[in-house]
Specification:
The protein is mainly alpha-helical. The protein has two helices and no strands.
């Protein structure tokens, strides 16, 4: 899964969580608020897990004039 896909899934889970929690507590359905709480937890865990699990890209070596990000180097 791409980073954009993981972040989109996280956002959808978190957006779906709040109505589920609200409906579950207001109407007295424990299954709904438990599903909402599970969706909220999973949606909140996806971005940090993606940061730690994803393979790091190697940084390019520095040039003679300095680091690659240096704006003075063309």
């Amino acid at each position: 899964m791409t980073r954009l896909g993981a972040l989109s899934l996280s956002m959808l889970l978190m957006l779906a969580a709040f109505p589920l929690i609200s409906l579950g507590t207001a109407q007295g359905h424990p299954l709904l608020w438990q599903l909402g709480l599970l969706a909220l937890g999973l949606g909140g865990l996806i971005p940090p897990l993606g940061r730690y699990i994803a393979a790091r890209k190697p940084e390019p070596p520095p040039t003679r004039a300095g680091m690659v990000e240096d704006e003075r180097v063309s």
